[in-house]
Amino acid sequence: MDMLISSFLDIAVDQTVDTAREFLQATNWNLEEAIQRFFSGNNNGATAAAESFNYSPLIENTPTLREWEDDDDDVHLPLPVRREVFYGENSGLYEDERDQISSSTFDSYSNNALSDLFRPPYEFLYNGPFDHAKEAGAKRNKWLLVNVQSRGEFASETLNRDTWANDIVAKMIENNFVFWQQGDHTEEGRKVCTYYKLDSRPVILVIDPITGQKMRSWNGMVQPERLLEDAMTFIDRTPSEYHSDLIRKQLERLTHRDRTEESSDTNHELKEITEETDHELLIYLPLPEEPNGNSICDKNLVCRIAIRLPDGRRIQRNFMKTDPIKLLWSFCSTQFEEAKTRAFRFRQAMPGPTKFWNYDSNLTFEESGLDNSIIALVMI
What we know:
Layout: H1 2-11, H2 17-26, H3 31-41, H4 46-52, H5 56-61, H6 65-71, H7 95-117, H8 130-140, E1 143-149, H9 154-163, H10 167-176, E2 177-183, H11 187-195, E3 203-207, E4 214-219, H12 224-230, H13 232-236, H14 239-261, H15 264-277, H16 296-299, E5 302-308, E6 314-320, H17 327-332, E7 344-348, E8 356-357, H18 365-368, E9 374-379
Parallel strand pairs: 1-2, 5-9
Antiparallel strand pairs: 1-3, 3-4, 5-6, 7-8, 7-9
Domain UBX: 298-378
Pfam family, one: UBA_4
Protein name: Plant UBX domain-containing protein 7-like
């Protein structure tokens, strides 16, 4: 019994022996149940202890009362404690009698209290698949804030209790983000973990809803103050403003390059290209991380594209089937030098009717029929 009391006090920090004994006696000396009841009814100090201490291994390795009895025949179940304390002036019930009356409803109350304490932020949670949440972010011109949780990590629960329940954080999310939360045990959760190569949970991501690019990530429990401070970058600029700034900076770099080269021919070529393509030739979507597509599950979500370049080389890369084919231009502009300054498109490389794909297409890889295809880059 002393070891059970000691184990209780290791978890419920700064509590007294009397408190430990009271909760253990009330639960027939079941350490796990005693801890759960203590945390559900003592939120002032106990929640901080729960957040900083993982008590599952301790409970698993602590002998139960029955195991103590097997080792020592002199150990017996404790007798109920009768305290001469009244509940209310006219209740007429002693504490042990009241415990007997309320014991049938205590577990239900505790479960409801814990459920309310760690509930997800349904008030501002986007309900739908990840791709739909991304589309909603693009339509509303708001960043996509993603939280992938895990049932086995207590930090997932504390994020719900402390961070998402914070009034200031909630207001920030409602004004600036589309918030999407999912468990890693669900199909949608696994899809996001695969695409963004997430190896720890819980994790928080800021996603560009226009390109799907991961802009920022946090792992584990993130306190409200830190999240508010780190998210200021995304509060100051909407996704469309971010892309406008990106285009402006790229044009400035091109202009600076031309000036340093002091080549009038180069300046003339840049002007012609910019006028003909309305800047689309030079400004491509940011290229997200490449999905690996190793597992069977991943292969259902990922496609591989092989591209023949004008110089005879053949390059290839994985894309998500839901990605826009515009990312082909982003990829090739990093692999083929001439593609940085000249317009190009793609042609079907296999025998058959000639088919072209241009940059103005808004199709995904799955919609375009390019899934696991070989295509050729053609300069215009």
